[in-house]
Design brief:
The protein is an alpha/beta fold and 367 residues long. It is built from 14 helices and 13 strands. Helix 7 links the parallel strand 7 and strand 8. The longest helix is centred in the N-terminal third of the chain and has 17 residues. The radius of gyration is 20 Å and the shape is globular. It starts with a strand and ends with a helix.
């Protein structure tokens, strides 16, 4: 089986969240690139560059295709290691490598008639607990909007959230106080995401102020985030009594944090450098006794399915993970979106990723 052509399709999808804040009536819109890896075996591997941080103009997409095709065309998706080594000799925008690697895994799974998780060691779990993302409350209407979203989630059977906070600490306090008043411990706060807003001493004060709300962990506490020094994380970690987490997009970052025992939890992501790099970081966490969860850039069903297969095969998924895109986005391009049940997302059946494109929906969402 040889790759014959790369197809890149830019699309948009509307988020459930407000564009500028939780109470904004205008909805946020994300842009993605759907990847189709065509082969001479009439197998098409699907991938997704999710919620891309660049403008996927026709010119950009054409340039991206022109860069990738000399690396991909004529090779087999089963030559994944050699292909990735060549790809990683160049600089790429965030999300790009992962979209290509997901498509290779989908093609391999389809060729072997097995789910992707079988290519990663086999299914260890059928479903993954998840946390729904809530944007920071800056005003009283934002507080009300976030509380209403929690109420809708509970009606759907989902009770775990991830809360971004720190833009207005008083409104954050008001929101979390009301959350606990209404629902007590029935709502689990998996993470309080500080988004790298604070200097070290301020981060310590903020965590101490909000620790009593009972979050599982505090994430990205210091400015610089994963590029901050291990010493910054160590100062925070030693001063507080709750776990500290940081995004780890490469083994290099993970090794620096692990060697210094600088964090308690790795937040890993396929969106950084793909599935292969993610597997390495899961192993690194296991070796150093650091807990691991999977983050999210808010994916559609193709990207979410890839993450579900990865997590199905990893032994050390220690906390609720963040892929919630099929609940967040109003539009999808797959025939059936990834399913969510009782606070979990379900690993799709194969072969490959176990999802298929709906051509009408894809056409409707094209940029």
């Amino acid at each position: 089986m040889k790759i014959t052509r790369l197809e890149l399709i830019p699309i948009y999808s509307t988020r459930e969240m407000g564009k500028t804040c939780p109470s904004d009536s205008e909805k946020a819109v994300s842009e993605h690139i759907i990847v189709r890896l065509h082969t001479d075996a009439d197998i098409v591997g699907l991938g997704e560059m999710s919620d891309v941080p660049f403008d996927p103009t026709p010119e950009y997409v054409d340039q991206l295709r022109a860069r990738f095709e000399p690396i991909l065309v004529g090779k087999s998706p089963f030559d994944r290691t050699s292909i990735l080594v060549e790809i990683q000799q160049q600089e790429w925008d965030h999300q790009v490598i992962s979209g290509i690697e997901i498509a290779m895994y989908d093609a391999m799974g389809k060729a072997l008639d097995v789910p992707v998780h079988q290519l990663l060691g086999g299914k260890h779990r059928d479903r993954i607990p998840f946390a729904y993302p809530l944007a920071p409350a800056r005003t009283a209407p934002d507080v009300d909007a976030n509380l209403a979203r929690i109420e809708r989630l509970l009606e759907q059977g989902h009770s775990t959230i991830r809360y971004y906070f720190g833009e207005n600490l008083d409104e954050d306090d008001r929101f979390l106080t009301e959350l606990r008043r209404r629902w007590g411990q029935d709502v689990l706060i998996n993470a309080m995401d500080m988004s790298g807003r604070f200097e070290v001493d301020e981060a310590i004060e903020v965590i101490q102020r909000f620790a009593h709300y009972g979050a599982n962990l505090f994430e990205s506490p210091v400015k610089g985030r994963h590029f901050a020094t291990p010493e910054d994380f160590m100062r925070v970690k030693e001063a507080v009594d709750v776990p500290i987490s940081e995004h780890v997009g490469s083994t290099e970052i993970g090794i620096g944090l692990a060697r210094n025992n600088a964090v308690d939890v790795f937040n890993v992501g396929v969106d950084w450098d793909g599935i292969t790099e993610c597997v390495k970081i899961f192993a690194l966490g296991e070796m150093f006794g650091i807990k691991v969860l999977h983050g999210s850039t808010v994916e559609l069903s193709i990207g979410t399915a890839a993450r579900a297969h990865l997590l199905a095969a990893m032994p050390n998924v220690d906390l609720p993970c963040y892929p919630a895109g099929p609940l967040v986005y109003q539009e999808q391009v797959c025939r059936e979106k990834v399913r969510y049940e009782d606070g979990h997302f379900i690993v799709p059946d194969g072969p490959g990723l176990g999802v298929e494109i709906d051509e009408d929906r894809l056409t409707a969402q094209r940029l």
